[in-house]
Structures are given as C-alpha cells and as structure tokens.
C-alpha cells in the first residue's frame, strides 16, 4: 500500500509539472500559439477557439490536482486530453495532412512528431495509472477517512463517532418554560 501511495504522489507531481507550465507557456506566448493553431488542418475559427480553450483547460487540469476532492476529475480530464493529443499526433506522424507545425508550445517545440507521439503515449499511460490509483484509493477508503479527507483532515470529534460523543447532562435535558 505504501508503494502505491508513493507512486501516486509521483504521478500527481509529474502531471502537475506537465500541465501547469505548458499552459502558462501558451498564455505567455499566446500570439505564437494562436498562429500555430490557425495553421493546423482545421478551420481558422476552430483554431482560434482552441487557442483559447486548450491553455485554459490545461491549466484547469493542473490546478484540479491540488485538491483531493477534484483529483478524480483531474486524472479523467488529463487522460482524455492525452487520448486526443495521441490521436492527433498519430495522424500527423502518418502525414494525413502533409506537413503541419506543432502547436504544443515552446516546452516541446524541439521534438519531432514521432518523439512527440511517444512522449504523449507515456503521459497517457501515466494519467491512466494515476486514474486507476485514484479509483483504488477512493474505493478502499473508509467512510471516516472520506469525511476527514473532505474536511481538510481535521477531526472535530476527538476520534469518536458522532453517536459516542459525550454530551454534558445539562445539555441533554432542556427545561420547558411554564405558562402562568
């Protein structure tokens, strides 16, 4: 179990280190990224839309990894994005559209399409393993640990269940007001 948690933490950090810098690079070099997106083999309108959507979505995915409550979404979205990128890069490797520029940003712009494909497949596998571990941990956590996880790990009951919490006798019986 400890090894799984360590692997899980490494995957979490790896995917945050992927999505956050890549999205920030696209925001900081927005005009260059937008130009590359418009040169892709789809309509200019779709290219412009993707130039707005992709960096925002990538940043959102990276930030969703921060909170334990949103990690299932983060791993799911990361996996879906990587499936889309693997499919797109596979088509580029097969030269379905001829020669097209890479719109991935400055972080990976030196890579050729084949290297980019292998990198994306690697990140897809990492995302899927993270998703599997997230589901495993979610399935195997106890109701109490789920409550503690959702309440920022603060145990307000002193380790007792709500039914076991000792209530002073004075609070158990509240005297009624008498009508005169």
Automatic annotation (TrEMBL):
Q: Where in the cell is it found?
A: Membrane
- Its domain of life reads Bacteria
Per the record, its GO cellular-component terms are: membrane
Looking at the record, the residues that make up the Methylamine utilisation protein MauE domain are 5-132
Q: Where are the transmembrane segments?
A: 7-24, 49-67, 74-97, 117-137
Q: What is its main location?
A: membrane
Q: Which GO annotations describe the biological process of this protein? A: methylamine metabolic process
Task: Give the bilayer topology.
Answer: Multi-pass membrane protein
Keywords on record: Membrane, Transmembrane, Transmembrane helix
Q: Can you name this protein? A: Methylamine utilization protein MauE
Which organism's genome codes for this protein?
A: Sphingobacterium siyangense
């Amino acid at each position: 179990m400890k090894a799984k948690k360590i692997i899980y933490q490494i995957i979490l950090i790896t995917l945050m280190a992927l999505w956050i810098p890549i999205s920030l690079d696209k925001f900081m070099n927005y005009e260059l990224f937008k130009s590359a997106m418009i040169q892709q083999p789809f309509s200019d309108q779709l290219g412009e839309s993707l130039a707005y959507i992709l960096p925002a979505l990538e940043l959102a995915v990276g930030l969703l990894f921060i909170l334990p409550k949103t990690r299932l979404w983060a791993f799911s979205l990361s996996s879906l994005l990587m499936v889309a990128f693997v499919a797109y890069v596979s088509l580029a490797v097969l030269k379905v559209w001829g020669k097209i520029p890479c719109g991935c940003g400055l972080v990976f712009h030196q890579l050729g399409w084949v290297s980019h494909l292998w990198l994306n497949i690697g990140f897809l596998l990492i995302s899927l393993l993270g998703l599997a571990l997230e589901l495993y941990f979610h399935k195997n956590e106890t109701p109490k640990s789920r409550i503690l996880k959702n309440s920022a790990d603060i145990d307000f009951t002193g380790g007792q269940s709500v039914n076991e919490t000792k209530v002073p006798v004075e609070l158990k019986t509240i005297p009624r007001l008498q009508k005169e």
